[in-house]
UniProtKB/TrEMBL annotation, chains A, B, C, D:
It comes from Streptomyces chengmaiensis. The keyword DNA-binding applies. Keywords: DNA-binding, Transcription, Transcription regulation. PANTHER family: HTH-TYPE TRANSCRIPTIONAL REGULATOR RUTR (PTHR30055), TETR-FAMILY TRANSCRIPTIONAL REGULATOR (PTHR30055:SF148). Pfam families: TetR_C_11, TetR_N. InterPro entries: Homeodomain-like_sf, HTH-type_TetR-like_transc_reg, HTH_TetR, Tet_transcr_reg_TetR-rel_C_sf, TetR_C. This is TetR/AcrR family transcriptional regulator. Residues 14-74 form the HTH tetR-type domain. PROSITE patterns: HTH_TETR_2. Residues 37-56 bind DNA.
Length: 207, 207, 207, 207
DNA sequence: CGGTAAGCGAGACGGTACGTCATGTCTTAAC
DNA sequence: GTTAAGACATGACGTACCGTCTCGCTTACCG
């Protein structure tokens, strides 16, 4: 086994790490992910290339850490990690989906998030990281709220919260990723309505 | 304005075009999109680089044409361009979604389709092409079937077929793109059930 | 056998070749061989690095060709390829050795010649090229003149012209390479005297 | 003026110094001077890089000290620091030149000596050190013996011992450095003969 | 005899150059 | 006039060393 010897992370330069995050996010925002190069990040951060290669295996990995850092910084400021439970599931979901729509429309998030999503589509390794560190924690909030809703009878007894959540989030992601149609609050509301009450007429018998 | 002189497409070599498609699909399948290069495609196709640059603006554009060609070949063989209408919407949708699941799980389609999707996420220009030439024709089949269903009362009167379709297709795409969970027939069925009959208990009053 | 495919030299850019020679000689003269880099030569010549790597295996090989070109240009202008034969061997040799001293003291020749000599000392492959293409042709002039001298009785019958030539050229090279003492016309003269008439007193019996 | 503070050599680690010498000589012998790096020497010696940079200004300086140490060790064992004076100059010189030939053909000396010579050709600073510490002491032995020879009439009265010595040593160095022809005992003998008795026929009048 | 300051092994750092690869443009010869 | 072939300028890749620096640690000297 010829593992490359792991660097000693206790000696790691915090200043360089932060400069690299800032440079990566700035460049992806300004010139796009494809035109962002590791050399460019290093130059912008005032850092040697090797300092990047020492700590990250790829451009995508740098950006993932940078983006996670950005998200955590924002989360620390906002500090509201759960979906509210007012008892009115429909209202609670609309609130959250509207917030998600706003976030996806925010240019500061859009560029790096798209880049990471695109890389994940094509790179299963990165996808696993992306999902487990960024996406899944968010989805678990839905799981929690929907499980609570099931217990109080707000949603049908047999429903799998995982599938329920995807019914809400999947269409949103679809529009965002492929830009088929604009992402609006109205769309978020319509999605919640359809998902909760179904496409079939209320009176229709269950098949 | 110095427009590059448009090549004379009547003199274009059909053999080269087909060889390029085959080479592009083969290389993307074998080594992945990122490692596939225009030089590599040219070499594999036994073609000069310029022949590619003359007719396509980018690697992604080559692959898009190649993939469309592949899809059309397959469609010509199968020749079943519409979603069936047996009167039983639930059954019809499950049939189609199961078929879609099978297609997405087919390695011959997976690699190029992923690559095109990923590029589209990040390149709005390509996305427009990808959507209009590949995705939208497929989605229109749903629009048609759902519109018919609305007219016969199989789905609620006010429903927007576009949103209805995304409720079905969005979650599928989500799982496929980010590989969060496996894509199975059961999942397709569950999606149709949830979408048609809603998450909320049948007895619940419409909000 | 995995030979790297040989490039097609009929398509080679003459302009690039000349620019590379000029850049290489200029940089070696200005900053020294050690600080001269292939990137630097390429940049100065307005040429891609690959154009250098395509045609030469190393920095030293570039410089050798550049220097040979320089020497040939100069030789074309001077066009006096042989050691004169006035019948007076001593005078002829002093003339040539003084000219060699002047050449070695000329800064335009000194820098690249030193660099090539130094590399040759350490790289046997290069040394073979250096010797056969640059040094040996010059030494053959001595061989010719000394052989003629032997036939006319100007030097002893049994003498090996090769050794005779090294007796003259070796000490010159020694002073030049290691800069032990200055290289002057007087030194050249003294060398010829010693070599021709020997260190031992004229009257001394041959051992 | 910001002189770098001189390190306290009384605290210097003798073990490290010796390990560095051994590593330097070993690496130059095994992989050649060009591929020998300071990092490599440090790693092989089990020493921090700074320990090398603290005490030596360059790779060449390390190797010079290492080689001098090697030569001194050998000299301490052999302990015969002068050219013999049996009264027969020719025999004495042949003895010494043959010994020099053997030394230059010894692989243990060849690699580092070549490297130092090559660096000296190109780096005047190092050359001065190389000459004064290694070469000159050896040449002075010739000066001494040749001066004695002049006093006893074994060589011509007006002869400069410096030039005489170079007549012997220069050609040897020439063959060794550029590997033009093999270095043999016969060659050493021929050199002494030519240098002592001259190229011109014995009967020829002095010019 | 305990404090402190040096040398030390280790290795992260900002850099520079390496030699390779692919880009997109250009030129040439063959058809 | 398109084609296969491939040289060209450009520029990023990922690696290797450079020489400097900062960490703890040992180790001697000195107050």
């Amino acid at each position: 086994m010829t593992h490359r010897k792991a660097p000693d992370s206790s000696r790691r330069s915090e200043a360089s790490r932060r400069a690299i995050y800032a440079a990566a996010l700035a460049l992806v925002g300004e010139t796009g992910y494809a035109k962002t190069t590791i050399e460019g990040i290093a130059a912008r951060a005032g850092v040697g290339k090797q300092t990047i290669y020492r700590w990250w295996p790829s451009k995508a990995a740098v950006l993932l850490d940078a983006f996670l850092d950005l998200v955590e910084q924002a989360a620390d400021r906002a500090a509201e990690p759960a979906i509210p439970d007012t008892g009115d599931l429909e209202a609670d979901l609309k609130l959250v989906l509207r917030a998600t729509v706003d976030e996806l429309n925010d240019p500061a998030y859009d560029a790096p998030a798209r880049a990471l999503a695109a890389e994940s589509v094509v790179d299963a390794r990165l996808a696993a990281e992306f999902v487990s560190r960024l996406l899944e924690p968010q989805l678990q909030l839905y799981v929690k709220r929907l499980t609570a809703a099931r217990e109080t009878g707000q949603i049908r007894a047999g429903t799998d919260p995982r599938i329920a959540l995807e019914l809400l989030v999947g269409p949103l992601a679809h529009r965002w990723l492929l830009r088929t149609l604009p992402l609006t609050h109205d769309y978020a509301d319509a999605l919640v309505d359809c998902a909760l009450y179904g496409l079939a007429p209320r009176g229709a018998p269950r098949a």
